[in-house]
């Protein structure tokens, strides 16, 4: 009796054979950000960021923002900024940052915020007096 080995292609091999190699362009990029600064004493000022370089810089403060992982941790902190990133694939990602500039969340658990976001966003909300 003869035995045969059947090799089934992996999904990646099928894509490669079809000429559909994964590329970096498949990862969506933030193309616009709408930022509101939370103010418990009055209306929330809103700033829209459309400059590609500035949007990319703000987006970089949130490593792993596009992953669907849940940290399982959630704090009872008040938000300082609420940001909506508009992605190149049409999706929107909503982010809230903690008032002490140490954490952020998309609603799937708290994550550590890279230092310096306040220095980038605070000047956008400065009011000349």
Distance between the termini: 91 Å
Any idea of the CATH topology?
Answer: Dna Ligase, domain 1
Helix and strand run: HEEHEEEEH
| Top-tier CATH class | Alpha Beta
* Number of extended strands: 6
Task: Tell me the strand percentage band.
Answer: 25-35%
Oligomer state of the chains in this structure: single chain
- Name the shape in a single word: globular
| Second rung of CATH, namely the architecture | 2-Layer Sandwich
Number of domains: 1
Structural class: alpha+beta
Helix content: 10-25%
**Biggest beta sheet summary:** 6 strands, antiparallel
Q: List the total number of helices.
A: 3
Low-pLDDT segments, ≥5 res? 12-17
**Rg from Cα:** 21 Å
- pLDDT average, as an integer? 79
Describe this structure in words.
A hairpin with an 8-residue loop joins strand 1 and strand 2 (46-49). The N and C termini lie far apart (91 Å). The radius of gyration is 21 Å and the shape is globular. The chain contains 3 helices and 6 strands. The chain has 129 residues and is α+β, with helices and mostly antiparallel strands. The model is unreliable at 12-17 (pLDDT under 50). The chain has a single domain (28-125), classed as Dna Ligase, domain 1 (2-Layer Sandwich), CATH 3.30.1490. It has helices at 11-17, 52-59, 117-121; strands at residues 30-37, 46-49, 79-87, 92-98, 103-105, 110-112. Strands 2-1-3-4-5-6 form a 6-stranded antiparallel beta sheet, with helices on one face.
Architecture blueprint of SSEs:
Blueprint lengths: L10 H7 L12 E8 L8 E4 L2 H8 L19 E9 L4 E7 L4 E3 L4 E3 L4 H5 L8
Antiparallel strand pairs: 1-2, 1-3, 3-4, 4-5, 5-6
